[in-house]
Automatic annotation (TrEMBL), chain A:
Keyword Ion transport in record: no
CDD domains: TM_PBP1_transp_TpRbsC_like
Name of the protein in question: ABC transporter permease
Membrane protein topology class: Multi-pass membrane protein
Annotated Pfam families: BPD_transp_2
Gene Ontology cellular-component terms listed: plasma membrane
UniProt organism field: Mesobaculum littorinae
Claim: Protein biosynthesis is one of the keywords in the record: no
Gene Ontology molecular-function annotations: transmembrane transporter activity
UniProtKB/TrEMBL annotation, chain B:
Protein's recorded name: ABC transporter permease
GO cellular component terms attached to this protein's record: plasma membrane
Species in which this protein is naturally found: Mesobaculum littorinae
InterPro entries given in the database record: ABC_transp_permease (IPR001851)
A Pfam family the protein falls into: BPD_transp_2
Transport keyword on record: no
Entry GO MF terms: transmembrane transporter activity
Location in or out of the cell: Cell membrane
Length: 356, 303
């Protein structure tokens, strides 16, 4: 079976829309085979993942809760990816954002202002952006690869979180659990839909989507940023600074991830704890690609990824599916998407003859 | 044993998983392909090797199984990257997430179980030498890894195969013009890199700390990727870098043993901090990195 990829005259819009759908189907099929081979009731598990997130109002509201951080982080990351700045340490920026935001209620437990959460969100954004700024400085001044630096900074952030939760910030009344005390009411985000855990952070995600759309599709700065990624040499001749693109990409994505972390501790959790992120920083990379690095596409793909999380949680209860199975589905999804996305620019031609 | 001797003796064992994975990634990158999924391939190799060692008690079989698992995972990366010219950064991350998740799934029934390690070889004369005797008393996998590094340096320096791999990495179009099958050679390099990463994981889980725990690779795969940059894509320097990072991780244990009150999280973060600092030192020498880096690294081959 030999084939050649032939470049299309223009990118295919149909394939761009079909690619994520095909990837979902293929990932579902292969996950089914893998889970079955491992002795998991695969049919029931996958049915639970696919169907339950949308079966009840409560499940759907939980999908919206998890959509918020994924949407926010992915919109930030996609801007950098289009400029070919690969921030893969959003997980760490999220953790630092969550830590910075938590500093207010932890250090000022008696502060009674009902608007504490506003300051927390601001601090979370600053913290996430500052953590990403280290990588920007390393890349622009020291020529160091941002992929490795952002990833290492994530591993360091996880250690800082553990240190704080086991040491100075541990809740004295928390029966030795690695978590802070519960935050006061003013430090919690206002709810959005009564009777659910959906809160203001979903609006942050929506706002980020609109901002990303205006910035990337309509503004000159956004256009310049894309050019530094797709045609670095042309950008250089036109006087567009590559270093500025790196700073912009990392500060935006860092701030978005930091805000997502702040919104997690002030939202569904109400305290700083070890499991503030279920790998959102890495899942958001998949969300960004699955959405075609386009703000509107990302809005859809963040819902899909969130549904996989909620469905995975349900399958853990009903089909004894281990939590790590969600990672398998995520990894397959991105792999198949990358294959399918090739056909946006290329078409396939089957050839009989051997070719090196 | 003095603390220094203890550090030196433990260094090579701690360096072995890093060296295996970094040498594998070196071959992949010299052929012009960037595979960021090393962490996942190591984890899967570790889980599979541990299961085989636990069931059969044989370390040889465990290493073969770990290598096979790493290679199989690498082929999942090769399909989008070689067959469909996909973005290598994204495909590598996908592999890392997928293989990491699979390792947790297959290893779940074995969580926290332990097995026996490989024996240290007592080599006559060498092991009895004063001062260095402890350093020279190592298990067979350590010696095999060092031999592999030497062999690899020779392959790149003076064999037709090594020169072909380098040509494919520097200028795939020219290599193809003189008849080198670019994609097939890259496929072989990716598979070989996966096998070595899997063996690195196998060493970590069946010899260095003979137990399985989810997340036990703890960033070693990423440090291996960084080691290739530190070593400026040169075999000897990559191996030396692995030994330095091995010493660093043993240093942590020594500091803990001396009872100095440093939070254990600070010590755990030390290799990551060191990676960031060394990366800055090496990369800021732009001449050095430009002269030695692989010209077509990360770019899909479009014949």
């Amino acid at each position: 079976m030999r084939f050649e990829l032939i470049r299309r005259d223009r990118a295919s819009l149909e394939m761009a829309l079909m690619a994520p759908v095909l990837a979902l189907l293929a990932a579902g099929l292969v996950s089914w085979a893998l889970f079955a081979a491992m002795g998991v009731p695969a049919g029931r598990a996958l049915w639970t993942i696919a169907a339950t997130p949308f079966s009840t109002w409560y499940d759907f509201s939980e999908v919206l809760v998890k959509t918020a951080p994924l949407l926010l982080i992915a919109q930030g990351l996609a801007i950098g990816f289009r400029a070919r700045v690969f921030n893969i340490g959003a997980e760490g920026q999220l953790l630092i954002g969550a830590i910075c935001a938590s500093a207010i209620p932890v250090l000022l437990p008696s502060a009674g202002s009902p608007l504490l959460w506003v300051a927390m969100m601001a601090l979370g954004m600053v913290g996430g952006a500052a953590w990403a700024a280290i990588a920007a400085f390393w890349r622009t001044r020291l020529n160091a690869n941002e992929i490795l630096v952002t990833l290492m900074l994530s591993l360091i952030a996880a250690q800082i979180l553990t240190y704080l939760l086991l040491g100075p910030w541990k809740d004295p009344m928390g029966m030795n659990f690695p978590q802070t005390r519960m935050f006061q009411p003013g430090a919690l985000l206002p709810g959005l839909l009564p009777g659910t855990r959906v809160n203001l952070s979903l609006l942050f995600g929506v706002a980020a989507t609109i901002a990303a759309y205006v910035f990337m599709q309509r503004s000159v700065t956004g256009f310049r940023l894309i050019v530094t990624g797709t045609a670095p040499r042309a950008a250089g001749y036109a006087g567009v600074s590559a270093a500025r693109g790196v700073w912009l990409s990392l500060l935006i994505s860092g701030a978005a991830a930091g805000l997502a972390g702040a919104a997690e501790v002030a939202g569904p959790l109400g305290q700083l704890q070890r499991s503030i992120s279920q790998g959102y920083g890495f899942a958001a990379i998949i969300v960004a690609y699955l959405g075609g690095l386009h703000p509107v596409g990302i809005a859809v793909s963040s819902l899909v990824m969130s549904a996989i999380y909620i469905g995975g949680d349900n399958a853990m209860v009903f089909a004894d599916l281990p939590q790590s199975a969600v990672l398998v589905v995520q990894g397959l999804l991105l792999t198949f998407y990358l294959i399918a996305a090739t056909f946006v620019r290329y078409r396939i031609a089957w050839t009989g003859t051997a070719r090196a | 044993m003095s603390p220094l001797e203890f550090i030196l003796a433990g260094t090579l064992a701690a360096a072995t998983p890093l060296m295996l994975a970094a040498l594998g990634e070196l071959v992949v990158e010299r052929s012009g392909v960037l595979n960021l999924g090393v962490e996942g391939m190591m984890a899967l190799g570790a889980a599979v090797a541990f299961i085989v060692a636990y069931q059969t008690g044989g370390h040889g079989l465990a290493f073969v199984a770990g290598a096979g698992a790493g290679m199989a995972a690498a082929l999942v990366f090769a399909v989008p990257v070689l067959g469909f010219r996909a973005n290598q950064v994204a495909a590598g991350l996908a592999l890392g997430i997928l293989a990491g998740g699979l390792s947790a799934m297959v290893g779940r029934p074995y969580e926290s179980l332990t097995i026996r390690s490989l024996p240290k070889l007592d080599i006559p004369v060498l092991s009895d030498l004063p001062y260095v005797g402890g350093v020279l008393t190592q298990d067979i996998a350590v010696w095999a890894t060092l031999a592999m590094a030497v062999a690899m340096a020779w392959v790149f320096r003076s064999t037709r195969l090594g020169w072909r791999i380098r040509a494919v990495g520097e200028n795939p179009h020219a290599a193809r013009a003189i008849g080198t099958p670019v994609l097939r050679l890259r496929l072989a390099c990716i598979a070989f890199g996966g096998a070595l990463a899997g063996m690195g994981g196998a060493y970590a889980a069946t010899v260095y700390t003979p137990l399985w725990a989810d997340g036990m690779i703890a960033g070693r795969g990423w440090i291996a990727v960084a080691l290739v940059v530190f070593g400026t894509w040169r075999t000897g320097r990559v191996a030396l870098g692995a030994i330095l990072f091995g010493a660093l991780s043993i240093g942590e244990l020594v500091v803990q043993a001396t009872g100095v009150r440093i939070p254990s999280q600070a010590l755990a973060a030390l290799p990551y901090v060191a990676t960031i600092i060394v990366l800055a030192v090496i990369s800021s020498n732009r001449m050095l990195t430009r002269r030695h880096s692989v010209a077509s690294l990360g770019e899909p081959f479009d014949p």
